[in-house]
Amino acid sequence: MSASTTAEQDRQERWAEIRSDPVLRELSYKVETNRRGQLILSPRSASHSDTQGDLIALLHEHADG
Asked: Is a pLDDT exceeding 80 seen at residue 40?
């Protein structure tokens, strides 16, 4: 097995851990990892929140109609 395959498997396992963590799922931050697999939490941008709101409004509009 090559080193790149092992590194990719390590990344996939790390993200599986992150996705299954209920605390991280509830955070209102963008969750990323660096090359060493360490978590990096960043506040979401205002435009991201605006886009989320627009999408929610559209979903409600289409679900009702």
From this structure: yes
